Amino acid sequence: MAQTGALPGGSPLDLDYFVEWRPYLWRRPVADALSFLGDLRGKRLLEIGGRSGRMACLFALLGANVTVLEKASLDIASDQLAKHDVADRVRLIRTRGGFEEIAGETFDAIFTKSVLWCIQDLGGFLDRIGEHLVDGGKAAFVENYKGGRLLFWLRRHLIHRGRFSYEKGYCGITPQQIALFRQRFAALHVRRHRYFVWEIFGRKAPGQAR
After folding, report:
1. CATH number for the domain that contains residue 79
2. Is 154 within a domain?
3. What does the H/E/C string look like for 2-44?
């Protein structure tokens, strides 16, 4: 069932549409991330891994000025911006996977959704995120949980129905890696939703890299 609400101006919000895939798993963590990020009007928000651009559109509709870093084609995302009439509030950047294109820029908030599962040097990546957050800025990570063999089997056969194409490279966030977030972000909130999705929210810690 779609979670609905209202966008600024009174337009209806269908969160399932913006979540894009498997809303029964991702809807609640994304809703919690939006609650954590708070009032986005006039805020500078960086989304890492924007895919279709739907979440970027949602952030823009909520009033943020959004920058998206994405390795894949941006054609679909561009279509989404036009559909929702937010092209003037969203900057799409094709990246090789780094942060070179936004060197020296800082943001009030940073958001990821199902991005960190493929990052091998997670600590180093989080350090780079800290460099692009303003002091006290918010980071909201909605990410895959890496479980044991049973969870892997369930994910592959029940959720993906045998079409799990990245078995060898799949990482996901382990409980042990939560320490990497605690070392870098203050007032960290950690919750695992239905054993498949992490919600990890925190603020830039005092003294974190700039």
Report:
1. 3.40.50.150
2. no
3. CCEEECCCCCEEEHHHHHCCCHHHHHHHHHHHHHHHCCCCCCE
Total domain count for the chain? 1
d(CA 33, CA 49): 16
- Rounded distance, CA 198 to CA 183, Å? 17
The boundaries of the domain holding residue 116 are: 4-144+174-204
Residue 71 domain-assigned (yes or no): yes
What does the pLDDT look like over 38-76, one tens digit per residue? 999 999 999 999 999 999 999 999 999 999 999 999 999
Terminal CA-CA length for the chain: 41
Report the largest interatomic distance among the alpha carbons of the chain, rounded to a whole angstrom. 47
CA 2 – CA 128 distance, rounded (Å): 35
Q: Judge whether 107 and 131 are in contact, CB under 8 Å.
A: no
For residue range 89-121, what is the model confidence (pLDDT) as tens digits?
A: 999 999 988 899 999 999 999 999 999 987 889
Residue pair 37/30 in contact (Cβ under 8 Å)? The answer is no
Q: Has residue 158 been placed in a domain?
A: no
Distance CA 123, CA 200 (A): 14
Q: Is residue 8 part of a domain?
A: yes
